[in-house]
Every structure is written in structure tokens, then in C-alpha cells.
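Appendix C: a fully annotated inverse folding record. The material below is reproduced so that readers can follow the format used throughout the book. The structure is listed first as C-alpha cells, followed by the designed sequence.
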């Protein structure tokens, strides 16, 4: 699987602690403070594994026959001028999908300052990745020199995948491309459809095959598009975060609290000045 994009976002914070969670909503106009609807108690590992197994077993899209696949590929390729699908001799096929990245929280990557060069950075990321492959339930990489930044809003990545590529492999491929050290379980792939003038999102199970969905829906992005977002659940899965990340959450919350307090004070200070000017105008 290849990713045909290049992205160079601007770094925001350089710290040994990653920040996979941020409660500050830049688009909000009020001063409502978001808090996690859970406690800091760890979820039992057995329960976490049961949840993962349940998600893996959730049904995927039904397979098509060889005749149906060939017919749909011919129809699909007739509707596009480039990046069509190709059918292999073994019955599988390859093609392109586009994934919209809509992440509201920063992602964690190896620190470029600690790496010293791009080559060293890639080598560090590869080492971290190889180290973490055999560790279940932990973040990619255990390096102390890490930094976090926000990805540009709604940037699009084009992936070349096969009909056998699963949702989980698509997520891992995107994270590896940008050397993201966060646990893949913190992210989820959604399919976006339009109905009655509304955008509907449905979380895809890890065993789903995105290219099959693309073939069934056709090339029109209005019929189907893929979106990578945070893996939102009913409760925050604190066991998926490392101790430095949890400590960094406290730093973020304290910073947000001070910024909100400053904004509230400025707001009411401006009101007070207006009231004082109005009283002076009516004062004989």
C-alpha cells in the first residue's frame, strides 16, 4: 500500500510528553468546559480484549462473485479518467481511495530536534515501530524525545490499496506514513454519506474492506467518502494512554482553564467599561 501525498505541518509544541487528547474546541463560541465522562480507573485488560474482539467480529460487506466484480470494475473505470481499478488473475483487484483527515486533537511524532536529521528521524521511527509491533495495547514507540502537532483541517490523502486491505491496515498505513506514534486504536475510519441534505457518518469495523465499499458506491464522492477521526466511544479509554500522555492532559487542562478565565475577565471588563461610560453620560 502506498500513499501519494506529502505533508509538512507546522509544529506547535516540543515536549517529551505526547498529547493525544485536547479538550479545547477552537470552534466553540461559548465557555463550556469539556471534561471526560469517566474516571481514571483502568479498564480490565480482559474487558478491553473482549471489546476489540467484538469490533473485529462485526460484519463486513458481503463478497461479490467474480462476474459481479468484473462488471462493476468496468462500470467504475468508465466513469473515471484516471486512477481506475485493476483486476488481478487471482480475483483480487487494486485501486485508489481518498481519506479525509479530520482530527481535532494533536498527534505525536518523533522529535526532529532529537533526531538531528530526516534520515535519523525515519530510522528512529522504524525502530520504534518494530519495537511496538509485539506490544499489545501500547503506543507506537517508547522514545522520550517526542513532539506533537495538529494536522491541517480536512486534508486529503490518496491511498493505493487492494481489495484485501482492511480498515485496520488503512489506519496503520496512514500513521506509518507520517510516523505517528499514537496507538492506532485511538483512531477510527468512518464512511460519510449524504442523505436528505445531511452528512451521515458510520464507523467501519476493522475487518471491513474500504476498496470494496468504493467499488459498490462508485467513484462519486457524494455517494461515499472516507474520513479518519478520533475513535470516539462512550467513555474515554484511559488505559490506551501512557503515563506521560496523562500528565500532559493535566498541563493542557490547566492551560485551557487559564485561557478561559482570561477570556471571561476580558469580556466582563469590556461590559463594565460600557456601563461606566453610560452612567457618566447620565450623571448631572
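Designed amino acids, in order:
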Amino acid at each position: 500500500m502506498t500513499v501519494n501525498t506529502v505533508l509538512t505541518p507546522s509544529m506547535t509544541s516540543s515536549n517529551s510528553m505526547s498529547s493525544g487528547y485536547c479538550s479545547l474546541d477552537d470552534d466553540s463560541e461559548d465557555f463550556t468546559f469539556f471534561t471526560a465522562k469517566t474516571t481514571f480507573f483502568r479498564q480490565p485488560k480482559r474487558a478491553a480484549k473482549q471489546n476489540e474482539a467484538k469490533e473485529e467480529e462485526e460484519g463486513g460487506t458481503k463478497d461479490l462473485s467474480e462476474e459481479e466484480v468484473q462488471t462493476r470494475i468496468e462500470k467504475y473505470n468508465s466513469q473515471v479518467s484516471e486512477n481506475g481499478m485493476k483486476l488481478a488473475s487471482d480475483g483480487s483487484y487494486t485501486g485508489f481511495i481518498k481519506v479525509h483527515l479530520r482530527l481535532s486533537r494533536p498527534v505525536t511524532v518523533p522529535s526532529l530536534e532529537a533526531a538531528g536529521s530526516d534520515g535519523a528521524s525515519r530510522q528512529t521511527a522504524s525502530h520504534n515501530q518494530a519495537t511496538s509491533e509485539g506490544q499489545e495495547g501500547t503506543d507506537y514507540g517508547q522514545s522520550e524525545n517526542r513532539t506533537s502537532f495538529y494536522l491541517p483541517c480536512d486534508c486529503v490523502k490518496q491511498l493505493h490499496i487492494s481489495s484485501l486491505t482492511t480498515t485496520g491496515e488503512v489506519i496503520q498505513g496512514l500513521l506509518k506514513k507520517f510516523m505517528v506514534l499514537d496507538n492506532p486504536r485511538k483512531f477510527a475510519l468512518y464512511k460519510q454519506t449524504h442523505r436528505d441534505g445531511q452528512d451521515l457518518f458510520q464507523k467501519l469495523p476493522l475487518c471491513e474492506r474500504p476498496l470494496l465499499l468504493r467499488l459498490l458506491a462508485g467513484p462519486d464522492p457524494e455517494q461515499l467518502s472516507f474520513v479518519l477521526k478520533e475513535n470516539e466511544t462512550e467513555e474515554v479509554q484511559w488505559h490506551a494512554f501512557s503515563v506521560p500522555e496523562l500528565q500532559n492532559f493535566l498541563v493542557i487542562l490547566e492551560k485551557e482553564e487559564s485561557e478561559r478565565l482570561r477570556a471571561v475577565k476580558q469580556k466582563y471588563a469590556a461590559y463594565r467599561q460600557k456601563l461606566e461610560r453610560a452612567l457618566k453620560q447620565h450623571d448631572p
